[in-house]
Specification:
heterodimer, A: about 110 residues, six-stranded mixed β-sheet, 12 strands, B: about 110 residues, mainly beta, seven-stranded mixed β-sheet, four-stranded antiparallel β-sheet, globular
């Protein structure tokens, strides 16, 4: 069975600091990987996704993630965070079939002005 | 235009009641889902339907019964509501296998 672990549950950063959120998954086969963001009181929105090809994926709002197959990781990065990035971030994996997308527990990011 | 819409947005009800949450998507997607997000923000899939057919049922109590009258709609009916059912329920849809899911705004259910 597939599973996702996010190591940082609550991250507090000052504006302009760099961000890296860890995500590891467990599944031996081909996977599709996602990062979703949930702003306070809102629904989940897709930040970026990896299906195949270049393992460095660029998403919206300056976010990027790198798929490292040997480490089963898909870490999210942003060089300089803004106050508006305050949100909950979810890593997710789908190992194929009819879309059983499994989410990590989420990381709450708080950016201090 | 809202791609995935759920109603109601908020639902407060007493224990033991029966309630329904409706979901509609106008994206032409084949697959729809219900997710439950608990107070700790943990998201867990409950059901998945593909072309009105149940594909995934993740150990959800029988009190929860999804219904898909057509592939654009997936409603969730809950019988005999319990305190532990309080959560935010998200509907989502996707085009096919291996594509991202689009989420609705969520329904915050509070059972008192």
């Amino acid at each position: 069975a597939q599973s996702v672990s996010q190591h940082n549950h609550h991250v507090i950063l000052s504006e302009a600091a760099s961000l890296e959120l860890g995500c590891n998954y467990s599944y031996g086969g081909t996977v599709n990987l996602f990062w979703y963001v949930q702003y306070p009181g809102q629904h989940l929105q897709l930040l970026l996704k990896y299906f195949s090809g270049d393992p460095l994926v660029k998403g919206i709002k300056g976010f990027e993630a790198e798929f490292i197959k040997s480490k089963f990781s898909f870490n999210l990065r942003k060089p300089s965070v803004q106050w508006s990035d305050t949100a909950e971030y979810f890593c997710a994996v789908n190992s194929g079939g009819y879309q059983k997308v499994t989410f990590g527990i989420g990381t709450k990011l708080q950016v201090i002005p | 235009d809202t791609a995935v819409s759920q109603t109601p947005k908020y639902l407060v009800t007493q224990m033991g009641n029966d309630k329904s949450i409706k979901c509609e998507q106008n994206l032409g997607h084949d697959t729809m889902y219900w997710y439950k997000q608990d107070s700790k923000k943990f998201l867990k899939i409950m059901f998945s339907y593909n072309n009105k057919e149940l594909i995934i049922n993740e150990t959800v109590p029988n009190r929860f019964s999804p219904k898909s009258p057509d592939k654009a709609h997936l409603n969730l009916h809950i019988n005999s509501l319990e305190l532990g059912d309080s959560a935010v329920y998200f509907c989502a849809s996707s085009q096919a296998k291996n594509t991202e899911a689009f989420f609705g705004q969520g329904t915050r259910l509070t059972v008192v």
